[in-house]
Design a protein that fits this description.
Strand content: under 5%
Order of helices and strands: HHHHHHHHHHH
Structural class: mainly alpha
Mean pLDDT: 85
Number of strands: 0
Low-confidence stretches: none
Oligomer: single chain
Length: 262
Protein backbone atom coordinates (compact mmCIF):
# COMPACT_ATOMS: atom_id res chain seq x y z
CA UNK A 1 0.00 0.00 0.00
CA UNK A 2 2.81 2.42 0.92
CA UNK A 3 4.56 1.77 -2.39
CA UNK A 4 1.34 2.32 -4.33
CA UNK A 5 0.71 5.62 -2.52
CA UNK A 6 4.28 6.73 -3.29
CA UNK A 7 3.82 5.88 -6.96
CA UNK A 8 0.45 7.65 -6.96
CA UNK A 9 1.56 10.94 -5.40
CA UNK A 10 5.31 11.31 -6.01
CA UNK A 11 5.33 9.49 -9.34
CA UNK A 12 2.33 11.48 -10.54
CA UNK A 13 3.84 14.83 -9.55
CA UNK A 14 7.25 13.99 -11.03
CA UNK A 15 5.66 12.92 -14.30
CA UNK A 16 3.59 16.09 -14.40
CA UNK A 17 6.60 18.36 -13.87
CA UNK A 18 8.45 16.58 -16.67
CA UNK A 19 5.42 16.64 -18.91
CA UNK A 20 5.83 20.23 -20.07
CA UNK A 21 9.62 20.32 -19.76
CA UNK A 22 9.27 23.30 -17.48
CA UNK A 23 12.46 25.30 -17.00
CA UNK A 24 10.54 28.28 -15.68
CA UNK A 25 6.97 28.63 -14.37
CA UNK A 26 6.47 31.68 -16.62
CA UNK A 27 5.56 29.35 -19.47
CA UNK A 28 2.33 28.76 -17.57
CA UNK A 29 1.09 32.29 -18.30
CA UNK A 30 0.77 32.14 -22.12
CA UNK A 31 -0.31 28.50 -22.07
CA UNK A 32 -2.88 28.47 -19.31
CA UNK A 33 -3.88 32.12 -18.91
CA UNK A 34 -3.47 34.22 -22.08
CA UNK A 35 -4.58 31.67 -24.66
CA UNK A 36 -7.75 30.68 -22.73
CA UNK A 37 -8.63 34.35 -22.19
CA UNK A 38 -8.26 35.04 -25.92
CA UNK A 39 -10.69 32.19 -26.63
CA UNK A 40 -13.18 33.63 -24.15
CA UNK A 41 -12.97 37.16 -25.58
CA UNK A 42 -13.30 35.83 -29.14
CA UNK A 43 -16.53 33.97 -28.45
CA UNK A 44 -17.96 36.81 -26.34
CA UNK A 45 -17.53 39.28 -29.20
CA UNK A 46 -18.90 36.80 -31.74
CA UNK A 47 -21.85 36.21 -29.42
CA UNK A 48 -22.47 39.94 -28.99
CA UNK A 49 -22.48 40.41 -32.75
CA UNK A 50 -24.81 37.45 -33.26
CA UNK A 51 -27.09 38.52 -30.42
CA UNK A 52 -27.55 34.93 -29.32
CA UNK A 53 -26.95 35.25 -25.56
CA UNK A 54 -25.46 37.54 -22.92
CA UNK A 55 -21.86 37.63 -21.75
CA UNK A 56 -22.56 35.39 -18.73
CA UNK A 57 -23.58 32.57 -21.06
CA UNK A 58 -20.26 32.66 -22.91
CA UNK A 59 -18.19 33.34 -19.80
CA UNK A 60 -19.43 30.23 -17.99
CA UNK A 61 -19.49 28.03 -21.09
CA UNK A 62 -15.90 28.80 -22.05
CA UNK A 63 -14.52 28.92 -18.50
CA UNK A 64 -15.85 25.45 -17.75
CA UNK A 65 -14.79 24.09 -21.17
CA UNK A 66 -11.23 25.36 -20.78
CA UNK A 67 -10.71 22.92 -17.92
CA UNK A 68 -10.60 20.27 -20.63
CA UNK A 69 -7.47 21.70 -22.31
CA UNK A 70 -4.88 20.58 -19.73
CA UNK A 71 -6.96 17.46 -19.01
CA UNK A 72 -6.77 16.31 -22.64
CA UNK A 73 -3.29 17.45 -23.62
CA UNK A 74 -1.51 16.55 -20.38
CA UNK A 75 -3.04 13.09 -20.16
CA UNK A 76 -2.37 12.40 -23.85
CA UNK A 77 1.23 13.53 -23.55
CA UNK A 78 1.68 11.36 -20.47
CA UNK A 79 1.75 8.35 -22.76
CA UNK A 80 2.89 10.07 -25.95
CA UNK A 81 6.02 11.57 -24.42
CA UNK A 82 7.00 8.26 -22.81
CA UNK A 83 6.81 6.65 -26.26
CA UNK A 84 8.68 9.55 -27.90
CA UNK A 85 11.53 9.47 -25.37
CA UNK A 86 11.74 5.66 -25.51
CA UNK A 87 11.02 5.32 -21.79
CA UNK A 88 7.61 3.64 -21.91
CA UNK A 89 9.12 0.17 -22.16
CA UNK A 90 11.26 0.79 -19.08
CA UNK A 91 8.29 2.16 -17.20
CA UNK A 92 6.04 -0.79 -17.99
CA UNK A 93 8.84 -3.28 -17.29
CA UNK A 94 9.03 -1.95 -13.72
CA UNK A 95 7.13 -3.79 -10.96
CA UNK A 96 4.97 -0.70 -10.32
CA UNK A 97 1.26 -1.44 -10.24
CA UNK A 98 -0.53 0.01 -13.27
CA UNK A 99 -3.53 1.54 -11.45
CA UNK A 100 -1.60 3.94 -9.13
CA UNK A 101 0.89 4.51 -11.95
CA UNK A 102 -1.69 5.91 -14.36
CA UNK A 103 -4.20 7.36 -11.88
CA UNK A 104 -1.42 9.20 -10.03
CA UNK A 105 -0.66 11.06 -13.24
CA UNK A 106 -4.25 12.23 -13.44
CA UNK A 107 -4.36 13.97 -10.02
CA UNK A 108 -2.11 16.98 -10.92
CA UNK A 109 -4.01 17.27 -14.20
CA UNK A 110 -7.33 17.63 -12.35
CA UNK A 111 -5.85 20.44 -10.24
CA UNK A 112 -4.39 22.06 -13.38
CA UNK A 113 -7.72 21.94 -15.21
CA UNK A 114 -9.57 23.37 -12.23
CA UNK A 115 -7.12 26.28 -11.82
CA UNK A 116 -7.26 27.18 -15.53
CA UNK A 117 -11.04 27.19 -15.40
CA UNK A 118 -11.13 29.25 -12.19
CA UNK A 119 -8.63 31.84 -13.48
CA UNK A 120 -10.62 32.30 -16.70
CA UNK A 121 -13.90 32.57 -14.79
CA UNK A 122 -12.63 35.18 -12.31
CA UNK A 123 -10.57 37.19 -14.81
CA UNK A 124 -13.29 37.00 -17.44
CA UNK A 125 -15.92 38.22 -14.96
CA UNK A 126 -13.73 41.22 -14.11
CA UNK A 127 -12.87 42.04 -17.74
CA UNK A 128 -16.43 41.67 -19.00
CA UNK A 129 -18.02 43.16 -15.86
CA UNK A 130 -20.21 40.12 -15.40
CA UNK A 131 -21.89 40.09 -12.02
CA UNK A 132 -23.01 36.92 -10.24
CA UNK A 133 -24.40 36.51 -6.73
CA UNK A 134 -21.65 36.00 -4.13
CA UNK A 135 -23.46 32.95 -2.75
CA UNK A 136 -23.28 31.25 -6.16
CA UNK A 137 -19.48 31.41 -6.46
CA UNK A 138 -18.57 28.59 -4.02
CA UNK A 139 -21.09 26.29 -5.68
CA UNK A 140 -19.85 27.16 -9.16
CA UNK A 141 -16.29 26.45 -7.96
CA UNK A 142 -17.53 23.04 -6.79
CA UNK A 143 -18.91 22.40 -10.28
CA UNK A 144 -15.52 23.33 -11.76
CA UNK A 145 -13.83 20.69 -9.59
CA UNK A 146 -16.27 17.99 -10.71
CA UNK A 147 -15.97 19.03 -14.35
CA UNK A 148 -12.17 18.96 -14.20
CA UNK A 149 -12.40 15.41 -12.86
CA UNK A 150 -14.78 14.29 -15.62
CA UNK A 151 -12.61 15.87 -18.33
CA UNK A 152 -9.59 14.02 -16.93
CA UNK A 153 -11.56 10.78 -17.31
CA UNK A 154 -11.95 11.58 -21.01
CA UNK A 155 -8.26 12.52 -21.12
CA UNK A 156 -7.37 9.12 -19.71
CA UNK A 157 -9.27 7.44 -22.56
CA UNK A 158 -7.46 9.69 -25.05
CA UNK A 159 -4.15 8.82 -23.38
CA UNK A 160 -4.85 5.15 -24.03
CA UNK A 161 -5.26 5.92 -27.74
CA UNK A 162 -1.78 7.45 -27.60
CA UNK A 163 -0.55 3.84 -27.60
CA UNK A 164 -2.00 3.47 -31.10
CA UNK A 165 -1.34 6.86 -32.74
CA UNK A 166 1.90 8.76 -33.35
CA UNK A 167 0.70 12.31 -32.70
CA UNK A 168 -1.24 12.93 -29.50
CA UNK A 169 -1.47 16.73 -29.92
CA UNK A 170 -3.56 16.37 -33.09
CA UNK A 171 -5.84 13.85 -31.35
CA UNK A 172 -6.29 16.18 -28.35
CA UNK A 173 -7.05 19.14 -30.63
CA UNK A 174 -9.74 17.16 -32.44
CA UNK A 175 -11.38 16.08 -29.17
CA UNK A 176 -11.20 19.62 -27.75
CA UNK A 177 -12.90 20.95 -30.89
CA UNK A 178 -15.63 18.34 -30.65
CA UNK A 179 -16.27 19.29 -27.02
CA UNK A 180 -16.76 22.95 -28.00
CA UNK A 181 -19.29 21.94 -30.67
CA UNK A 182 -21.21 19.24 -28.78
CA UNK A 183 -21.21 20.33 -25.12
CA UNK A 184 -23.22 23.54 -25.20
CA UNK A 185 -20.20 25.81 -24.73
CA UNK A 186 -21.34 28.59 -27.06
CA UNK A 187 -24.64 27.19 -28.33
CA UNK A 188 -27.16 25.60 -25.97
CA UNK A 189 -27.49 21.83 -26.31
CA UNK A 190 -31.25 22.24 -26.82
CA UNK A 191 -30.50 24.29 -29.98
CA UNK A 192 -28.32 21.56 -31.50
CA UNK A 193 -29.72 19.10 -34.07
CA UNK A 194 -31.56 16.16 -32.49
CA UNK A 195 -28.90 13.61 -33.51
CA UNK A 196 -26.21 15.57 -31.65
CA UNK A 197 -27.98 15.84 -28.29
CA UNK A 198 -27.56 12.18 -27.14
CA UNK A 199 -23.83 12.49 -27.92
CA UNK A 200 -23.70 15.73 -25.92
CA UNK A 201 -25.23 14.04 -22.90
CA UNK A 202 -22.58 11.29 -22.96
CA UNK A 203 -19.66 13.71 -22.96
CA UNK A 204 -18.00 15.53 -20.04
CA UNK A 205 -18.73 19.26 -19.70
CA UNK A 206 -22.36 19.21 -20.90
CA UNK A 207 -23.97 18.72 -17.49
CA UNK A 208 -21.31 20.77 -15.69
CA UNK A 209 -21.85 23.79 -17.94
CA UNK A 210 -25.61 23.55 -17.50
CA UNK A 211 -25.25 23.29 -13.71
CA UNK A 212 -22.90 26.30 -13.55
CA UNK A 213 -25.23 28.39 -15.70
CA UNK A 214 -28.23 27.45 -13.54
CA UNK A 215 -26.31 28.40 -10.37
CA UNK A 216 -25.33 31.74 -11.89
CA UNK A 217 -28.99 32.31 -12.74
CA UNK A 218 -30.03 31.79 -9.12
CA UNK A 219 -30.71 28.06 -8.79
CA UNK A 220 -29.79 26.31 -5.56
CA UNK A 221 -27.26 23.49 -5.19
CA UNK A 222 -30.13 21.07 -4.59
CA UNK A 223 -31.73 22.00 -7.89
CA UNK A 224 -28.54 21.27 -9.87
CA UNK A 225 -27.26 18.32 -7.81
CA UNK A 226 -28.61 15.85 -10.38
CA UNK A 227 -26.58 17.53 -13.10
CA UNK A 228 -23.43 17.47 -10.93
CA UNK A 229 -23.91 13.77 -10.12
CA UNK A 230 -24.40 13.04 -13.83
CA UNK A 231 -21.20 14.93 -14.66
CA UNK A 232 -19.24 12.94 -12.06
CA UNK A 233 -20.75 9.63 -13.25
CA UNK A 234 -19.79 10.40 -16.86
CA UNK A 235 -16.26 11.18 -15.71
CA UNK A 236 -16.05 7.86 -13.85
CA UNK A 237 -17.33 5.99 -16.90
CA UNK A 238 -14.72 7.61 -19.17
CA UNK A 239 -11.97 6.95 -16.61
CA UNK A 240 -12.96 3.28 -16.37
CA UNK A 241 -12.95 3.05 -20.17
CA UNK A 242 -9.52 4.70 -20.26
CA UNK A 243 -8.03 2.27 -17.73
CA UNK A 244 -9.48 -0.67 -19.65
CA UNK A 245 -8.10 0.63 -22.94
CA UNK A 246 -4.67 1.20 -21.40
CA UNK A 247 -4.48 -2.40 -20.25
CA UNK A 248 -5.74 -3.69 -23.61
CA UNK A 249 -3.45 -1.54 -25.78
CA UNK A 250 -0.46 -2.36 -23.58
CA UNK A 251 -0.98 -6.06 -24.23
CA UNK A 252 -1.52 -5.44 -27.96
CA UNK A 253 1.54 -3.18 -28.19
CA UNK A 254 3.71 -5.83 -26.55
CA UNK A 255 2.34 -8.45 -28.93
CA UNK A 256 2.90 -6.32 -32.04
CA UNK A 257 6.15 -4.72 -30.83
CA UNK A 258 4.72 -1.19 -31.16
CA UNK A 259 5.18 -0.10 -27.57
CA UNK A 260 7.62 2.67 -28.51
CA UNK A 261 7.95 4.94 -31.51
CA UNK A 262 10.71 4.21 -33.99
Amino acid sequence: MRTSLRIFFIGGMTSYRALFHWLTPWILIPTFVLSPLFQLVFFVFVGRDAGYADDTFYLIGNAVQLASIPCLFAMGNTIGNERYFQTLGLLLASPARRLPLFLGRSLPVIVNGFLVSLVVLVTGALLLRVSMAAAAWPEIVGVLVVTSFSCTGLGLAAAALALRVRETAVLSNIIAGLLIVFCGVNVAVSALPAWMQPISNALPLTHGIEAARDLAAGSSWGQVSGLVVAEAAIGLAWAALGIGLLFYFEVESRRQATLELA
